[in-house]
Please model this.
Amino acid sequence: MRIVFLSESKGFGGAEQYVLSLAGGLAGLGHEVHIVAPSGARWSLKDDGAWATSFTPSAVHAFRPAEALWLAGVIRRLRPDVLHINMPSAYSAGFGMAAPVGRALGCGVVATEHLSMIGRSRRRAFFKNLFEPYVQKVIAVCDATATALKEIHGVAGDKITVVYNGVDPAALSFVERSRARSVLGIPEGVPAVGCLGELIPRKGQSYLIEAAAGFSGGPAAGAAVVIIGDGEDRERLRSLIAERGLEKTVRLAGNVESAGSLLKAFDVFVMPSLMEAFPFALLEAMAAGVPVAASSVWGIPEMVVHEDTGLLFPPGDPEALREAVVRLAGTPDLRARMGRRAEKAVAEKFSLDGMVRGTAAVYESLG
Model:
């Protein structure tokens, strides 16, 4: 089967990791995979026999006839069996036109929804609803997204398949704890709290910083909080750290190469987001056997079972976040138990193989 992925992002985050993970897995099943994404995209495309991928710089940036014609030309050249539209919000104003273009040229059309368009502009929602009939199957990465698609956007339930994101722990090549700590500059014997993600408001790193102000005098006293990632919120977060006098406690590490492989450096991994679909960073921490404390938003409660594979706290609540981290920091047996159960959950429910095969089954259902 020949598959073309269409993506809108120049950056690299979970939605882009999703495409690359699927590309490698589907190529491994014998499919031919092509990726169409914006020129200048910061994508690390592997170029070996196991991937069999090609990259086409995208000229699609808005809803314009000229760009629809360009896309039609790419589809005619690649002649895919399946056009797979992948965006944090599928069928957006610029990329929604891909669905009718693909259908007109005889492709099966699948779209993956990571987050629905709650809070987005009416114009984007209009185009989403306009082009939805041309999409044959929708993959939702979690039940929360599937529910929103049905209840808010009126997408038929029989059109939606939930396929959870997945990871392959063996491919992540986790670095041993002491070496990982050395790479990240974390002294041995110090409780380490990690957070990995783009520095943007909805990722909620400010709540972790506020929580860290209350770590003194308890099991988390002296903790090193390392926030990995970069983005538009960096200076605001830096100012907040200074305002709270936390320069010796919280460090903005910026982008770190192969950051996911260093997760074993941490005693606790925190995901304080205000909105997440089914985040890969959280899956990777669970796969590393690191106990997690995460906000109970969107798809996260489908990943983390409270008091079993991790701890959940209300989004935007630094006190609840602090309590979760302090509890984990002060209870080694609880950390070990939750880490083991989280690792098992990834192997059994959130594997890359399961994600790839579930997606391939959606393609095959197109007939």
Observations:
- The mean pLDDT is 88.
